[in-house]
Amino acid sequence: MFPTIAANSASEYRQLGLSYRQQGRYQEAITAMSKSVELEPKNLMGKVNLGWTLHLVGREEEATNYLLQAIYQEPLKYSAYNALGIVYLVDDKLINAVLIHTLAVILKPDNEVAYYNLSLALHQLKIYPMAINAANYAVKLEPNNPHPLVSAAINYWDSGSRNLAQNIYRRAIKLDIRYQNSIFLNHLQQAAFTEEQINITKQILSSL
Question: pLDDT by residue (tens digit) across 101-115?
């Protein structure tokens, strides 16, 4: 049930859905966002918001459907590519993730999200030189975010440059001291790291 105050227009349903999502009330958020898309099917952000929220609850196939609709509707909108690329990444569709994030970079060359996720996908594909380049560029674009540094570190580590991986990881610790805590590293799952990538990060930490 929606509160009495909110729901008449597509815009109001979108705002209500975002509010629910911020509160972690995902099912209610999806209901509100679905209504906004029903009322205003040509609104791109309505579909992107709905697709992303479906992804957050693990409904990847439905998320993909709405995000593809957004891309077909407006092929030059990089935000839809970013969201779809992450859906593909966590759904282990790595080639699709690389393709979509590459298109996102073409559309927005200073797209730190796309470069970061490219580095994670390419790491899983063991294409380390390209993954390192992507991670380092994400670091350049977003120097205060530890996530691209950690991605660079695991790529250097698996490519054999272990001293460099350790030095890069120390930079992440300088940004956020919690990266010295092995248990804290489990949160990297929320940043699209796989369990294997988290374990590699823990290896780097234990080697310092």
Answer: 999 999 999 999 999
Q: Is pLDDT at 79 greater than 70 in this prediction?
A: yes
Please count the CA atoms within 13 angstroms of the CA of 8 that sit on its side-chain side: 2
Q: What is the pTM of this model?
A: 0.86
- Residue whose pair of structure tokens reads 């310092």 in the numeric block: 208
Query: Which tokens is 81 given?
Result: 């590519």
Give the Cα-Cα-Cα angle 177, 208, 202 (nearest 5 degrees): 70
SS3 per residue for 153-201? HHHHHHCCCHHHHHHHHHHHHHHCHHHHCCCHHHHHHHHCCCHHHHHHH
Alpha-helix residue ranges (DSSP H) falling in the chain: 10-22, 26-39, 44-56, 60-73, 78-90, 94-107, 112-124, 128-141, 146-158, 162-175, 195-207
Angle separating helix axes 78-90 and 94-107, nearest 10 degrees: 160
CA angle 151, 153, 158 (to 5 degrees): 100
Q: Could you tell me if 113 and 119 are in contact, meaning their C-beta atoms sit under 8 angstroms apart?
A: no
CB neighbour list of residue 31: distance below 8 Å, 6 or more residues apart: 17
37 contacts 43 by C-beta, under 8 angstroms: yes
- In the chain, the amino acid numbered 208 is L
CB atoms under 10 Å from CB of 132, counted, come to 24
Buried b (16+ CB within 10 A) or exposed e, 21-48: beeeebebbbbbbbbbbebbeebebbbb
